[in-house]
Amino acid sequence: MTEKDAVIIGAGSGGLSALRQIKNATDNYLMIDPGPLGTKCARVGCMPSKALIKAANDFHRRHKFQSEGISGAESLSIDPDSVMEYVRGMRDKFAGNMEKVTRKLAGDNLIEAKAKILAPDMVEAGGERIKTKSIVIATGASPLIPSPWREFGDRILTSETIFEQKHIPKKIAVIGLGVIGLELGQALSRIGTEVVGFDMKETLGGLTDESVKKRAIEAVGSDFPIHLGEAARLSSTKDCKITVCYGDHCDCYDAVLAAMGVSPNIEGLGLENLGVELNDRGLPNFNPKTAQISDLPVYIAGDVNGCRPILHEALDEGFIAGKNAAAGQDDCFCRRVPLRIVFSDPQIAAVGYMREELETTGREFVVGREDFSDQARAALEQNNKGLLHIYADNQTARFLGAEMAIPGAEHIAHQLAVAAQNQMTVFEMLQSPFYHPVLEEGLRSALRNAASKLKDKHTQPELLVCGSCPESPLC
Amino acid sequence: MTEKDAVIIGAGSGGLSALRQIKNATDNYLMIDPGPLGTKCARVGCMPSKALIKAANDFHRRHKFQSEGISGAESLSIDPDSVMEYVRGMRDKFAGNMEKVTRKLAGDNLIEAKAKILAPDMVEAGGERIKTKSIVIATGASPLIPSPWREFGDRILTSETIFEQKHIPKKIAVIGLGVIGLELGQALSRIGTEVVGFDMKETLGGLTDESVKKRAIEAVGSDFPIHLGEAARLSSTKDCKITVCYGDHCDCYDAVLAAMGVSPNIEGLGLENLGVELNDRGLPNFNPKTAQISDLPVYIAGDVNGCRPILHEALDEGFIAGKNAAAGQDDCFCRRVPLRIVFSDPQIAAVGYMREELETTGREFVVGREDFSDQARAALEQNNKGLLHIYADNQTARFLGAEMAIPGAEHIAHQLAVAAQNQMTVFEMLQSPFYHPVLEEGLRSALRNAASKLKDKHTQPELLVCGSCPESPLC
């Protein structure tokens, strides 16, 4: 039995990112995954959902056509099954490409089987035992389905099965309105499925800022009914495929889309053989800045660790895990500022600290506010709705975070992420140019609003005085 | 005759911005404008064009409907005259509001007449002579129409008259393909007008980067024919309202949209009475960082000065002019990094230094490239086209500028403007999070491409090592 330098368990986005780092150091590695290859993101996650959302929003826009001078919108129709066929075609391109990338990257070092950890330096796969200097665990996570719900069989859909449906059910209860439930629920509703949304929590898309949340609920609620704050209960009768009850009210559905979060793919993985304590989710403690589990040569990256279950974070964790696994080290890396986006309409996004986090820590901060129902560009495009809140430290004027439910949130959030990553103050942020008319001007308004509320009222002018000008052409 | 502290000539965006600063210092001022009030931007510029472009792009999107599972696109039709009616309605809201703002801001100090400068401390308006401690000139600019073209009368349209047309001509030659010609030409073509575009220069939307320009020409050229690099000649015959010749080829049109730039509104303004030298455009020299003309108590702001004829720059110049006019000073302010956006499809934008400027100054720079025909999010939305080039200093890795013709350029450009304003390096820019799948990932690819080409190949990892982490929550 030859000893490997590294074994990567899982060929998803996190595992592939680790693989890239490990390949820089050694060819003596194995990647183990039972398939299907192609990454969750490309197969059933970020990619197909965006194609679906675009089609849904294109169709939804017809409501504005008459006002814009476009006739015939009433003749438009959409066929949910055709949309899904389109989405699958799009998806197959991306997932097929990712599978090719995976096979090319891993080459002969790919074992298509399930892996089991036997010890911190020993893995079993395909009936073989592999001794290894390090292990990267990147098995991902899967949609959570409460075990009592399993009796409903294929009437329970998830993000992993919805895109495979040849016939989209006519009436769907979406249970869980985080990023996945909200994106899929709204899109399904816009392509003509009857959708009702439920979430035990009184929130939508993870928002914690009450005012922003309220506006998001209003806007999304105009697409499809949503019920928040109480658990949905499922049952089945002869007359109805699946009954969903909420409080005293029950209604009949063709299917339920379960979107209540994910559980880590650790069944049969043998984490118990690592010899470290496991928490109530069955996971070991790990350091998000080293990806290391305890002081073992074992690293954990991507959705499986439950820390930041978002693709770009999985890539970062894979990078850290791969670098450390290859070198047998525990080098410590900064994590990027948090950036979360829900591709709903209005889009929901959060950057840096959430409002709840700031309030919990008792930090003194001001809130800069911009109501997008008055935002010029949004109004020009008849898409004016939502609210942007940015948070700034009342002492230092530093930008701390933001929550928003606005059109174009994905773009505003990226600009804000640059500011957060570079620890900029609201005054520094206001020195940038803002074109006209753009959605970003709404961000400027929120920044100005925050600046006006800061303790130190001696606000700095947006234009710097000469002497410290950035080099740039003039006329 | 009482002496005023300040007289503002022109109640457009630049003048109103100056007014806000002057009102902070004194109530003893006058604002003079012959009307119509409401600002060029809101009446005939940025605002109506964006409403038109949105309607045009909504209609254009129908070509993708069938593929997305939406039926009936062939039943859609658009009526250019209805679109313009919609645009006027939208425009009236914004312009009406701006007129109200103007009247409220200026109050009784508004004189609705044409102003003439008699001396650096004397203005005439409405038959009255006004002595003043300072003058702000903010009269704006108007579309340039070569005098021989005046014989064609109302067959020559401009951005100031096109939105007023009750009947949009069936076939229009757009002459000049800078920001205005390109935006209006493409939108008119998409709402069903037959459009042919011409520009004497071999460029589009002001691009100077040959590769980006080429891709822009390809993309826009698929909407309507464009002829670059030779002057268009106009004539009129009995059989044809207006004939446009280009090289050996002539064709008949219903109207010409003249979009060859603007000329400053200085006729009868009395600039010759300032006692300073005027250049061949009839304008005095001025300092863009103080807005001051020579050492006179006279300041010039906005499109009239020809420096940076863009709304947000006019506001900055108004701020500088107003502050200095009120205080009788020449305080020097930094100008923001240049940011130019054309709302075409693909959008065209430039930030910081243009490529031509960098080449002219002999600066050593690398080009980071991203082809958006392969960009994931753009492909998911069937809008994958165009090219992004970013320029970085080969010694310092500092981001210097960018030119692009890509979907969502307006957003990418704002993120880049933050980087330019803060003199960030490409490595610092890569430390920010990029979500997936977003257009901004195309920017990241271009940044990585630039980083890989830098002289100092010791590239910094995107994740900082611990010790210098920005404060932010972890899991």
TrEMBL record, chains A, B:
Cofactors (names): FAD
Annotated protein name in UniProt: Dihydrolipoyl dehydrogenase
Keyword Oxidoreductase included in the entry's annotation: yes
NCBIfam families per UniProt: PRK06292.1-1
Domain of life, source organism: Bacteria
EC number: 1.8.1.4
Domain (Pyridine nucleotide-disulphide oxidoreductase dimerisation) ranges: 340-445
Gene: lpd
GO MF annotation list: dihydrolipoyl dehydrogenase (NADH) activity; flavin adenine dinucleotide binding; NAD(P)H dehydrogenase (quinone) activity
Enzyme class: oxidoreductase
InterPro entries (UniProt xref): FAD/NAD-bd_sf, FAD/NAD-binding_dom, FAD/NAD-linked_Rdtase_dimer_sf, Pyr_nucl-diS_OxRdtase_dimer
Keywords: FAD, Flavoprotein, Oxidoreductase
Domain FAD/NAD(P)-binding: residue ranges: 5-316
Originating species: Sedimentisphaera salicampi
